[in-house]
Specification:
The protein has helices at about 35-45, 45-50, 75-80, and strands spanning about 1-15, 20, 25-30, 50, 55-65, 90. It is α+β, with helices and mostly antiparallel strands. It has one domain (about 1-90). Strands 1, 2, 3, 4, 5 and 6 form a six-stranded mixed beta sheet that branches. The longest helix has 10 residues, at about 35-45.
Length: about 90
């Protein structure tokens, strides 16, 4: 079994330009399928993830199939420093 890790980029509007302001991670768990099926699943979840108005934008920039026990760098940093994961990617 695997899960899909989706990564986004957030931009904020400063009136004269859009500035990148980090992003978010999302998981689609319990995935059983091919890369092509994963693409379909990611695209089906776009409306839950992406956002766009005159002040704020969030867009998918990457996705990948990862093992069920995969942890993001942010999750690993929490484990290394606190011994516990308090903030995980949102599960879709």
């Amino acid at each position: 079994m695997a899960k899909i890790l989706i990564q986004t980029q957030v931009y904020e509007n400063y009136g004269y330009k859009w500035k990148p302001k980090g992003g978010s991670d999302y998981y689609i768990t319990n995935f059983h399928g091919t890369v092509e099926q994963a693409t379909v699943s990611v695209m089906a979840h776009r409306e839950q993830i992406e956002y766009n108005n005159e002040m704020f934008r969030e867009h998918i920039i990457n996705w990948q199939l990862v093992p069920d026990d995969y942890v993001t760098q942010y999750e690993q940093d929490q484990l290394d420093h606190e011994g516990i994961i308090r903030f995980s990617p949102k599960v879709l």
